[in-house]
Write a sequence for this structure.
């Protein structure tokens, strides 16, 4: 697989994550200009030991060695990611994972910035995403935050996805 194909694969595999950001349009939400970056501790509490449920998959943020695991069926194509998650001092959650699909394997680093103002949390996919309200005050069922669930919701699907991907390589 060429480097160009690997880069394309990484973009496709991570493209389905947080599609709410791209759906938000180009207008920044009110209050974002005065919101402050979240601390590492706040972001850790938000994601640690939680699964982020996506439209066609999920990612799990394990406390043990900050392991990140994920599966996806974006566009009907099974894939899975394995790597590590980390938090930057500037309020970013990132995960560095090797994504495996029928077409090959590619490494991708995906990051999300977080800002907070009062009870509101804003999120933006880096580097080109748009800010959107991640968690309202009070939280609403339609918030992206509502897709975080305590526990590992990845493991039960991961084995089947791994088998599906490896059979076709």
């Amino acid at each position: 697989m060429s480097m160009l194909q690997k880069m394309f694969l990484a973009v496709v595999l991570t493209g389905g994550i947080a599609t709410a950001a791209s759906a938000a349009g180009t207008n920044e939400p009110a209050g974002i200009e005065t919101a402050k970056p979240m601390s590492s501790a706040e972001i850790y509490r938000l994601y640690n030991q939680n699964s982020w449920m996506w439209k066609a998959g999920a990612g799990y943020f394990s406390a043990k060695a900050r392991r990140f695991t994920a599966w996806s069926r974006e566009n009907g194509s099974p894939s899975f990611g394995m790597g590590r998650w980390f938090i930057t001092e500037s309020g970013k959650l990132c995960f560095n994972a090797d994504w495996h699909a029928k077409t090959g394997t590619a490494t991708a680093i995906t990051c999300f910035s977080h800002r907070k103002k009062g009870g509101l949390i804003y999120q933006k996919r880096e580097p080109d995403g748009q800010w959107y309200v991640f968690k309202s005050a009070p939280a609403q069922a339609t918030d992206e935050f509502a897709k975080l669930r305590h526990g590992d919701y990845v493991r039960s699907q991961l084995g089947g996805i791994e088998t599906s991907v490896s059979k076709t390589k």
